[in-house]
Amino acid sequence: MITLRHEGPRPTWGFVIVSVPRGNSGDDGHDVKSERMTDSESGPDLTKTGPEDSTPEPGTDGDRPLVVVEHVDKHFGELHVLKDINLTVNSGEVVVVIGPSGGGKSTLCRSINRLEPIDGGKILVDGKELPKEGKELAKLRADVGMVFQSFNLFAHKTILDNVMLGPVKVRKQDKQDSRKHAMELLDRVGIANQANKYPAQLSGGQQQRAAIARSLAMRPKVMLFDEPTSALDPEMVNEVLDVMTGLAREGMTMIVVTHEMGFARRAAQKVVFMADGQIVEENTPDEFFTNARTERAKDFLSKILTH
């Protein structure tokens, strides 16, 4: 872990991690911490970021498991929050995890790179099991981009410097190359004109887009999103979902915890429904939203799709 001098509220900086600070409650109640874009809006392809990027082109390697969760259990004291979880996410696949609050969605997301330690089972990223700690864990974490509901940009650095920081400090990339790539990413998420401003000068939606660009700057193999729009004002939600939809269209492997059912219908290849710490059902968006198999899922959908 690299220690960076920071004045003001200190975010959790874990390589490409954008994490919720302690004191904010995640989906599980544990103290942790839009439409498709048009071709004219799409900008440079974020999944084609140079020779170091191992993300396959859409459709070229879609059957290769990139994230595998096997028989994972997790407790918070006596509370059993993850119960024998099994999930496979293939390269280039977008998996959207939905369900009632307290169902285990956020804990699963945070467990995928051991921001939350697990009590049993195993998790593999690109064929390698996540170690419990040490340099090997740090190396694997650098391949997993994370964006959470709290953007946590470094307040004393410009937006451009925030995006450049990981590649320069962690990947040891040339500063000039990192600056060029950072500007391309900021242009891609629609805030290149904000590059020299500080986080406090941006809206919440702009800050979240900057957080996405910061994670993408590390050229991750997979992106995790834990309710990235839940802290935003309603009018800012679509601008973030637009960026995420563009990433999905371009073939980025994504695991997204969200309450945005429109995004799930539009962007996901697979919908996973969680409740009471278990995966109750998984299916394609069309099948899940029109023909859910379980009574628990049907009850959930009946309550959220009628309002």
Automatic annotation (TrEMBL):
Catalytic activity line of the entry: a polar amino acid(out) + ATP + H2O = a polar amino acid(in) + ADP + phosphate + H(+)
Topological category with respect to the lipid bilayer: Peripheral membrane protein
Pfam families: ABC_tran
Cellular localisation: Cell membrane
Stretches assigned to the ABC transporter domain: 67-301
Location of region: Disordered: 19-64
Domain of life: Bacteria
SMART domains, A to Z: AAA
GO cellular component, one term: plasma membrane
Keywords from the UniProt entry: ATP-binding, Cell membrane, Membrane, Nucleotide-binding, Transport
GO MF assignments: ATP binding; ATP hydrolysis activity; ATPase-coupled polar amino acid-transporter activity
Protein name (database record): ABC-type polar-amino-acid transporter
